[in-house]
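SEQUENCE-TO-STRUCTURE ENTRY
===========================
What this section holds: a protein sequence and its matching fold, both as plain text.
Question of interest: how does this chain fold, as expressed in backbone structure tokens?
***
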Amino acid sequence: MLKFQPGMFGSLAIKDFRFLWLSNLCTSFAMQMQMVARGWLIYDMTNSPMALTWVMLSFMLPSFLFSLIGGVIADRMQKKPIIVLAQLLNAIATVLLAYLIYTGNALFWHFIFFGLINGTILALSMPARSALIPEVVGEDNLVNAMALQNATFNLSRVLGPAIAGGLIALMASKELAANAPTETSGVGLVFFMIAGLYLAAVISTSMVQNTGSPKNESKSSPLDDVKEGFNYMWQDKVILGLLIMGFVPFTFGFATSFLLPAFNQDIIHGGPDDLGLLMTCMGAGAFTGSMLLARLGDIKRKGKVMFYSAYLWAISVAAFALSDTLLLAMIAGAGTGLFGSIFGGLNMSVIQLVVRPDIRGRIMSILMMSFGLMPLGVIPVSAMAEFIGIDMALLFSAGMLALSMLILGILFPDLRRIDRGHGERILV
């Protein structure tokens, strides 16, 4: 039986989790670097913002289409082989794309094709990765472990784009000084480095001894498993409320990230360097929130803390909307990252805690489906920003974030009373 490991980095005392955490670190940096390198190259090739949108949708659409299948697989099969295979396929796909870019043969449709591949692999494997963590660390360490996982993602948000951008600039200068094979060979080399990070993740995950044994021993069909997942969600009002909480408030809260470039240009009249500072402050705030949650560990009254952090998140979004200088926007932006990270990390942890282990993969896949739809939810806010102003649209988002949490608290009163996980859930 696992014992609670005190301290901010307590879960890293568990050997298997150290390997999973290192794997997540490599994968997170690879994904953030790939987004920057891919976006830079696509815009350089097409000079079309819509092209960037199509590639992003090609990556996110599979999350909606295939996450449920991934959830069924996670509950029926050993989880570690699924994760290793997915990471290996990701690495191979990235190597192929890197070769096309390096040799100057990459076309726009290649990015759509590999976006669909990478998105599908992620959709099919992410429920297994999410469901394996509670088995590795145990319930007492889960909040700390999930916070450390979120911290690696937020750290990659801060450093990943800077590393990728610096490498691209460095490679571009070398291309000018040497007779490079193609104009994009430097970007191709960056993609080879990204593939190396994916391979490092494969090696790290392979070192995990816990294979994540199947929790669903039934002989039912996969379709029946999917129906069971949805029935469980509808019948357990706490789970239903947590899943809605993980989608609706998030959609409004993350409007600041979606509208950040426009806010930077139209409200504070900033340039590219100012945009970089705002992104860094938001990422740093999110990283700080993850580390704070990791330090707090298995706190009591988790439900109330979720609601408090969401209301503080809404206040930060409103303050950001009202900022008219770079300094104020940086401070408010750091606050949105801080409280959004605490709310998101705790919501994910509580879902893992309260759900039955034999159905955990399918519930996590339903949550992933909602993440795939999140960009669609921002469309009304974006339209409002275009017609009545970005500041008013962000104020609307802040109000809707607070209002949605207030309504959830009324419709699902037990959410405020969550204290412990499945098997010993205490409603205080």
In short: The mean pLDDT is 80. The CA atoms of residues 209 and 271 lie 49 Å apart. The longest helix spans residues 142-177. The two ends are 27 Å apart (CA to CA).
